[in-house]
Design goal:
By secondary structure, the protein is of the alpha/beta class. It has 10 helices and 7 strands. It folds into 2 domains: about 1-45, no CATH class; about 100-215, no CATH class.
Amino acid sequence: MREIVSTVRALLNNETVTFNGEFVQLDGVELDYVYQERRPKNVPIYIGATGMQMMELTGEIGDGVVLNYLVSPEYNKQAIEALGNGAAKSGRNLNDIDRPQLVVCSVHEDRQTALDMARLMVTQYLGQQPHIMKASGVPQSLLDKVGEVLTWPATHEQVVKASKLVPDEIVEMLTASGTPDDARKKVKHYIDNGCTSPILYPLGDVKAMIDAFEGWEVS
């Protein structure tokens, strides 16, 4: 990743590059501007890191990170610490790293309806990404139970069956779901734990989510 980012930066700086990667090979390549002015481009590089080693590397070499969704604010705390450690290696600090985050958001005036709309997606992620879920604080016992029901590729029927094992508190921990006020409070909690710009990923009633955040300002 370090070499890839370096190569991209060189291209954007109008340099001619050669790169021999596992899947991509470049030999004397440069950007073709055609009708544009030929000048270096200041394009920030964002990395979609999830694991803590990658998060630290992102802090060292990236301009920003796109934080994952379906993680707990507690997971964010670990990620922010790793980003800060990486930034320090390159003589920067955490404030030099932009940190937008994808946030699953399910909004309904009836709290239970909102949670139910998000439960299937949470269930599928519990089965697909148990290591991330464990890092977010999901009990291993629940991950084991869900894993016993889901086989991959999982069927819709299996996900529905496994979702009955997933309690409301897990859905609440991993998403911004509930009433409009619930959702706003949870998004603010992500912001308080390192997210600089929430990217809302709607489930269920999209209009309800838009209405909930229209004109909203973080206080």
